[in-house]
Structures are given as C-alpha cells and as structure tokens.
Design goal:
This is YgjP-like metallopeptidase domain-containing protein. This protein is mostly helical. The protein has one domain: Zincin-like. The protein has 4 helices and 3 strands, in the order H-E-E-E-H-H-H. Strands 1-3-2 form a 3-stranded mixed β-sheet, covered by helices on one side. A hairpin with a 4-residue loop joins strand 2 and strand 3. Helix 1 packs across helix 2 and helix 2 crosses helix 3. It is globular, with a radius of gyration of 16 Å.
C-alpha cells in the first residue's frame, strides 16, 4: 500500500502468467467478500447457504438453487462494495422466496438498504465489468 492509501497488486512470476494470476487473485477476493456477506445475510434471514461458487458468468451476476447453492460472477469484485453486498443479499433472499415477487423485494430491501442504489449502478455501469477477463 502506498502512503496515499492506494493499493498496489504485485504479480510474481513470468509475464505470460500475469493475466491468470490476477484473475485467480480477483476470484479469491470475490469469494472471500461474497462468502462473508452471504453468511451475514443468511444468519439475519434464518436460512443456510450450503455452497457458494465463483464463476465466469456472462449472462447473470448471481444465481440461487432451491438446495441452497449460490453462484456469483467473479467480476463483482470489480464493482463498488455496496453492489457486491446487494448481490449477496439478493441471492440469499431467494432462499426465503424463490422468485421475484413483491415479497421477495421486501425481504431483499429489508436486509439491504442500498438495494435501489446498487440496482441503479448495475443498470448504468454493470455491462462495463464484462470488458474484463482472461483469454483462454
């Protein structure tokens, strides 16, 4: 970290592996932050997250199965923290209500006061996150 507070990521190894190493680092950070948020929301709502996975999803930011498995796009780590937090709340809220009914939105909004702000950010800036990735 610089004196200014700016964070710096130093990537070890050959330049040919830099993209993959940065990608792996971002996925680990996403898992850590999303796991922490999802567990907090699950405790608040009295539900249990059985599994959390981080993927390279291009059509959705997250998903939830009725069995309690949550999946998220690794790109959420590139969004502001309130957006990542909202997506965790959104998917955990599906463990209470497996649809997008009025009840679902009440549950989600109750636990995540920044819901509307995050939805607006995703509508405005979310597609920009798909510019980032690793060429396979």
């Amino acid at each position: 970290m610089r004196d200014s507070g700016e964070r710096i990521l130093c990537v070890a190894g050959g330049v040919e592996h830099a993209d993959r190493r940065v990608h792996d680092f971002l996925k680990r950070e996403a898992r850590h932050d999303l796991q922490r948020s999802a567990e907090a929301y699950a405790a608040e709502l009295g539900v249990r997250v059985k599994r959390l996975s981080i993927r390279d999803q291009s059509s959705r930011w997250g998903s939830c199965t009725s069995a309690g498995s949550l999946s998220f796009s690794w790109r959420l780590i590139l969004a502001p923290p309130f957006v990542l937090d909202y997506l965790a709340a959104h998917e955990v809220a599906h463990l209470v209500e497996m649809n997008h009914s009025a009840r679902f939105w009440r549950v989600c909004g109750k636990v995540c006061p920044s819901m509307e702000r995050a939805k607006k950010w995703l509508d405005t800036c979310g597609n920009d996150l798909h510019r980032y990735g690793v060429e396979d």
